[in-house]
Design goal:
heterodimer; A: 6-stranded mixed β-sheet; 4-stranded antiparallel β-sheet; 38% helix; B: mainly alpha; binds adenosine-5'-triphosphate; binds magnesium ion
């Protein structure tokens, strides 16, 4: 592919103490690409995407985000992070601020945008995730699905080049999963670059350009959704798919 | 307030067994005291005759009347709505206290004469010594808490040495050490700054621990979320972590403020003319100790009440984001 690479991971290894959590990961995320990462629990999916904005440190290999190499002594980590949106499993909204303020905080305090403009942007993205009417509530007053959509809007307000999702729907009740997935599908359709850890295989099939299967800290298999679901090559992938598609 | 159940519990003070027990206990207690010399016994004269000769019957009658009044009072208060209940009980307890102070036969003119000076000199000194110390202690506490949570060895060592030392020594000793010890090192220090320094350092040490535990109580996800948006350490601390830690920090900090207000009386030992110092000295010449001590006590209490009110206001402010 000739498109510009937004995230490039080369032979990335990470240890938690003695435990080898990532074992030589190679992955390139191109502009506009939608990547879904799946794999059994403990396989290192969260660890990997948390390395992409250096919430976690890797010990070997190289990660380049938007042309900036991530390492322990970098001085511009904030600039890199503010261009990489992240949505967490447990939302992690700021509970002491209103929904609107959650969305305005980043642009105002990090990018130095004026309050009026931040407010305008925030309302635009809240509209986009279809909860503008909740703007003045506090996060606890919203349902899980609404909170997650606010979290997405909060990230979007930073106008990131890429969005990372770490199991955004797995803490939600079933009836709220679809509203969040719809929001994410909308984002994908608008061309947002996305790396998404999820076990929602319907979503993966519908929007992913590539599906990546991880096990025990390694990328075992990757391919287009059709190839991945229709014709998995590795036994571990087959076992995993048969387990999650059973439900 | 506790999270109330939707099923109303029966009112305790309207249960027969409770009322009967209460009545019995009050009756016995007041029979055990010899009340025959009191004003209440005088009021009972039509029933019991000459109080001092009324004997067991007199004691019983007095105890019985008091028990009836007491029990009736409690049962009636039980019917009132919550706010009114709180008000009445406060008022009654206050009246009891006033009755207690009445028994000292305080000289009101003497109080009236000395009170302006007690306030203009004593209260003002107490207030500014405490206020400055509170501000300094809070600043120390934030810095200390951050240092204690950092993985910088120097910062941690200094902060933990500091909290250990100043929590480990009696405040009175710290006051002496600073006032008498610093001049030996060549820093001659006045009584008021010495007192402020001692109070700030001591309370800063306690509050460091309060702030540290408050900061630690915040979920790691909050750090991650703000970091992932590009917030630096100072911004995360100031805008995300501390505001959320405050509701946890405020109740024990309010405690510390109130306690500091009163512990500022310890600086009287180095001759600072604050409330306690004046209360002890103003009445000395004429042996009217009680007048000044009680006035000072009331003043301390009222100042503490102000702090309590401020604390509850702030707590209510921070409760907003928790209500559904
Ligand atoms: N802070 C940590 N300290 C030590 N080990 C950790 C830490 N975080 C994760 N691990 C280990 O690293 C491995 C990968 O964890 P990770 O959270 O990336 O898994 P995951 O694929 O996201 O799993 P899940 O689907 O359960 O979220 C796990 O075995 C986990 O026990
Ligand atoms: Mg995970």
């Amino acid at each position: 592919m000739s498109a510009q690479a937004i995230i490039e991971a080369k032979a990335v290894s990470k240890w938690y103490g003695q435990f080898h959590a990532l074992k030589g990961i190679n992955l390139t995320v191109h502009k506009g690409e939608r990547i879904v990462i799946c794999g059994p629990s403990g396989s290192g999916k969260s660890t990997l995407i948390r390395c992409f904005n250096r919430l976690e440190a890797h010990q070997e290999g190289e990660i380049v985000v938007n042309g900036v190499t991530l390492h322990g002594r970098m001085s511009n980590v904030a600039a890199v992070r503010s261009n990489v949106g992240m949505v967490f499993q447990h939302f992690n909204l700021f509970p002491h601020m209103t929904v609107l303020m959650n969305c305005m905080a980043g642009p105002m305090w990090v990018k130095g945008v004026s309050a009026a403009e931040a407010r305008h942007t925030a309302l635009k993205f809240l509209e986009r995730v279809r909860i503008p009417e909740q703007a003045n509530k506090f996060p606890v007053q919203l349902s899980g699905g609404q909170q997650q959509r606010v979290a997405i809007a909060r990230s979007l307000c930073m106008k990131p080049d890429v969005m990372l999702f770490d199991e955004p729907t797995s803490a939600l009740d079933p009836e709220m999963v679809s509203e969040v997935l719809e929001t994410m599908t909308g984002l994908a359709r608008d061309g947002m670059t996305m790396v998404c850890v999820t076990h929602e295989m319907g979503f993966a099939r519908a929007v992913a350009d590539r599906v990546i299967f991880m096990d025990a800290g390694q990328i075992v298999e990757e391919g287009t959704p059709d190839a991945f679901f229709g014709n998995p090559r590795h036994d571990r992938t087959k076992v995993f798919l048969s387990q999650i598609l059973k439900h | 307030m506790l999270y109330p159940d939707t099923v109303e519990a029966e009112v305790l003070v309207h249960k027969l067994w409770f009322v009967a027990t209460m009545f019995g206990i009050v009756l016995l207690v007041f029979m055990a005291f010899n009340m025959s010399g009191t004003g209440f016994a005088e009021l009972m004269r039509p029933v019991i005759g000459e109080p001092s000769t009324s004997g067991l019957y007199g004691r019983f009658a007095i105890g019985f009347s008091i028990a009836v009044i007491f029990t009736l009072n409690v049962v009636l208060i039980g019917f009132a709505p919550l706010k009114l209940q709180i008000g009445i009980v406060w008022l009654e307890l206050l009246l009891l206290f006033i009755a207690f102070f009445e028994t000292f036969h305080l000289s009101l003119p003497f109080i009236r004469e000395k009170l302006p000076f007690l306030i203009s000199q004593g209260v003002v000194t107490t207030l500014y010594v405490s206020a400055i110390s509170i501000v300094i202690a809070s600043v120390i506490a934030v810095a200390g808490a951050v240092a204690k949570l950092s993985n910088n060895g120097f910062a941690y060592a200094i902060a933990s040495f500091y909290t250990s030392f100043f929590r480990g020594l009696p405040l009175l000793m710290q006051v002496y050490l600073i006032y008498l010890g610093l001049p030996q090192l060549g820093f001659v220090i006045n009584a008021v700054p010495a007192g402020i320094l001692a109070l700030s350092l001591c309370y800063g040490a306690y509050m460091t621990e309060i702030f540290r535990s408050g900061i630690q109580s915040i979920d790691r996800g909050q750090w991650e979320a703000s970091r992932s948006m590009g917030f630096g350490f100072a911004l995360t601390m100031r805008r995300i972590i501390l505001p959320q830690a405050l509701p946890v920090i405020i109740p024990p900090t309010g405690n510390q403020f109130i306690s500091m207000l009163k512990d500022s009386s310890l600086v009287s030992v180095i001759g600072v003319w604050e409330l306690m110092f004046l209360a002890r000295t103003l009445g000395q010449k004429t042996f009217q100790h009680m007048e000044m001590l009680i006035s000072a006590a009331v003043i301390y209490w009222m100042l503490s009440i102000c702090l309590e009110l401020i604390q509850s206001r702030i707590e209510r402010h921070y409760a907003r984001s928790k209500v559904r």
